[in-house]
């Protein structure tokens, strides 16, 4: 098609179904600008591919019988780039996922997870707000000067995108959300930024490209328009964020950080492959981190898995017995600087619950568990640092020992030696009639094993040796116990 001419194409219903019109089983190349007039229709037949080279413009009348339309049948595809898009409406009859190559002055594709041949979906992008920008629901801080008009009756996951730097709009990618115009105001729609964009195939980033998707399927006609929004948390219910800091005695280094030997380069020549487990070691917990042995993964450097529990309503119910309600528990990742993160490297979130205050319990596979010594307000964000002093952890009332180990630099850390993970160090025998110390002594028979994830490896360097023995020989003599030994979860 000659790019020097603006060609108006208006195809009648008769031509749409005429095999000589656009149903040849060939690829269609739009090698220049094309204009689709009022009620005009260009239909791309099954199995065809459109290569957009230059913009296609169609009439932008919202009324369905006035729109110019580039329409895709099921089993069609298209190829495009940032300089070539449809400035107007695109229709999809595809039953599966479809990316709409729309834009206006800039490339701003949208996507849906499904549509239907008999109930297609129409999408157009506007670079100006189509409704009042200042009419915002209470949980929306701001919206962009753009709108996607999406029409359809097939419920689907909706994805919006950005193709340029939007860091001036939001300083954190986690504050990007989707808003819909309900006829009176812009309201938040439960959504989350795509780690890998289904539109661009790359990691979403504020400074380049990215996308965000609704958390559930919605009928496109539920809202008059959609846009990108700035909200405190895009999810339907904001998680309670837990900013937690703690350290493990066995993993401590002289610089006040912890080793990540099991994840990082071998400490000694001959050490086998890195051995932090992809699946967390706590029974019944679902968390998985496939990149745990990659220091360049989302969580970066990692020491080990830990188990964090949020508990509430603690009450004494008998002699040396307390009962409590378990609000939620999660397997999380501990970094060398003491920070606790989720598998995406972000501060972990816990479900909203109608309770006033909570305590935080932490377990590690071979360190004595701890419980926060104070009750904390359960609101949008909890910050707690166990390392500030030893009494940040609750002390067993009748015990003479400190609830955590105090290091020479003033930092507090969890005692090493609870190899059976039974809330005590040699205070009781486990079901196999073995104490922690006896398990360590038996574990010395595995001292020839290098690089494995061994519970007897108290200093977390991938082997069982004198370094672990120095820890257990001292700590097991104290017969230390965690308060959690006396805490019973209510059914």
What can you tell me about this protein's structure?
The protein is mainly beta and 491 residues long. The chain folds into 2 domains: 8-231, no CATH class; 240-489, no CATH class. It is 5% helix and 30% strand. The protein is built from 4 helices and 33 strands. It has helices at residues 13-16, 19-22, 436-443, 466-475; strands at 8-9, 28-30, 34-36, 41-44, 49-52, 56-58, 69-72, 77-79, 86-87, 89-92, 98-100, 110-112, 121-126, 140-143, 147-151, 158-162, 176-181, 186-189, 191-193, 210-214, 226-231, 240-245, 304-318, 321-334, 340-341, 349-350, 357-364, 367-371, 376-377, 381-385, 405-406, 412-413, 487-489. Strands 23, 24, 25, 27, 28, 29 and 33 form a 7-stranded mixed β-sheet that branches. Strands 4-7-10-13-15 form a 5-stranded mixed β-sheet, with no helix packed on it. The protein has a 5-stranded antiparallel β-sheet with strand order 11-12-16-20-19, with no helix packed on it. A hairpin with a 5-residue loop joins strand 31 (405-406) and strand 32. The longest helix is centred in the last third of the chain and has 10 residues, at 466-475. The protein is elongated.
């Amino acid at each position: 098609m000659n790019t020097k001419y603006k060609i108006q194409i208006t195809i009648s219903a008769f031509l749409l179904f005429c095999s000589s019109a656009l149903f040849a089983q060939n690829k269609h190349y739009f090698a220049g600008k094309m204009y689709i007039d009022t009620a005009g229709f260009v239909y791309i037949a099954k199995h065809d591919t459109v290569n957009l080279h230059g913009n296609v413009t169609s009439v932008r009348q919202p009324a369905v019988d006035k729109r110019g339309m580039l329409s895709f049948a099921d089993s069609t595809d298209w190829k495009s780039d940032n300089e070539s898009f449809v400035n107007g409406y695109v229709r999809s009859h595809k039953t599966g996922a479809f990316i709409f190559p729309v834009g206006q002055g800039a490339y701003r594709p949208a996507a849906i997870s499904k549509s239907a041949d008999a109930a297609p979906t129409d999408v157009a992008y506007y670079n100006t707000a189509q409704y009042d920008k200042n009419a915002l629901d209470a949980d929306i801080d701001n919206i962009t000067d753009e709108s996607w008009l999406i029409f359809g009756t097939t419920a689907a996951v909706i994805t919006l995108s950005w193709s340029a730097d939007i860091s001036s709009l939001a300083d954190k990618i986690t504050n990007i959300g989707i808003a819909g115009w309900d006829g009176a105001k812009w309201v938040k729609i439960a959504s989350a930024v795509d780690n890998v964009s289904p539109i661009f195939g790359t990691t979403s980033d504020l400074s380049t490209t990215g996308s965000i998707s609704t958390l559930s399927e919605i009928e496109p006609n539920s809202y008059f328009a959609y846009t990108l929004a700035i909200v405190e948390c895009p999810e339907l219910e904001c998680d309670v964020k837990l900013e937690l800091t703690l350290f493990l005695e066995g993993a401590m280094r002289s610089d006040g950080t912890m080793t990540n030997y099991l994840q990082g380069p071998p400490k000694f020549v001959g050490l086998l492959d890195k051995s932090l487990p992809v699946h967390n070691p706590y029974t019944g917990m679902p968390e998985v981190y496939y990149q745990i042995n990659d220091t360049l993964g989302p969580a970066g450097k990692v020491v080990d898995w830990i188990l964090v529990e949020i508990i509430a309503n603690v009450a004494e119910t008998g002699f040396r017995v307390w009962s409590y309600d378990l609000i939620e528990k999660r397997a999380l990742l501990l970094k060398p600087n003491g920070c606790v993160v989720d598998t995406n490297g972000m501060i972990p979130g816990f479900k909203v619950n109608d309770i006033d205050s909570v305590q935080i319990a932490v377990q590690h596979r071979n360190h004595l568990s701890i419980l926060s010594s104070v009750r904390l307000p359960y609101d949008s964000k909890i910050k707690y640092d166990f390392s500030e002093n030893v009494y940040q952890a609750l002390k067993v009332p009748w015990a003479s020992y400190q609830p955590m180990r105090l290091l020479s630099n003033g930092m507090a850390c969890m005692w090493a030696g609870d190899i059976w993970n039974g809330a005590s160090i040699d205070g009781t025998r486990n079901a196999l009639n073995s104490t922690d110390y006896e398990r360590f002594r038996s574990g010395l028979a595995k001292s020839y094993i290098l690089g494995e994830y061994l519970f007897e490896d108290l200093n977390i360097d991938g082997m069982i040796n004198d370094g672990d023995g120095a820890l257990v020989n001292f700590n097991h003599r104290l017969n230390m116990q965690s308060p959690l030994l006396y805490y019973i979860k209510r059914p």
